[in-house]
């Protein structure tokens, strides 16, 4: 991170907010000419600092209105048990994020989005509880998200 100069940081900040802007627009936004701007963007991509580009889709407009954070406890703390759980959970499109955590009685924290409570019940009963080794499930439902960003701090 220390090797990034002011222009690199501006590029990262700007692209996180406006990923579809053209190189010309980006160059103007950061007060750099287009050719060096494009060269810098390509260097940031090649270095892996820019992983890729995505479209952020409106969940509500897709009918996905119920978000939940689910703490999962496993019965055994072995590499095989963790690997199998992660392999299975990564195949569920309802799971937006899966984190192996510490400091809680749970082993994993999932961020899940579904259509409604019926869909949540189906996800819980037909998928989560059927994963071998799951010994505890605790769900919390999101009421409001006053901060919801994908942008990382680069300054």
UniProtKB/TrEMBL annotation:
Residues in HTH asnC-type domain copies: 4-65
Molecular function terms from GO: sequence-specific DNA binding
CC per GO annotation: cytosol
Gene Ontology terms: biological process: regulation of DNA-templated transcription; response to amino acid
Keywords: DNA-binding, Transcription, Transcription regulation
Origin superkingdom: Bacteria
Gene3D superfamilies: 3.30.70.920, Winged helix-like DNA-binding domain superfamily/Winged helix DNA-binding domain (1.10.10.10)
InterPro entries for this protein: ArsR-like_HTH, AsnC-type_HTH_dom, Dimeric_a/b-barrel, Tscrpt_reg_AsnC-like, Tscrpt_reg_AsnC/Lrp_C, WH-like_DNA-bd_sf, WH_DNA-bd_sf
Family matches, as SMART domains: HTH_ASNC
Protein name as it appears in the record: Lrp/AsnC family transcriptional regulator
Organism: Cellvibrio polysaccharolyticus
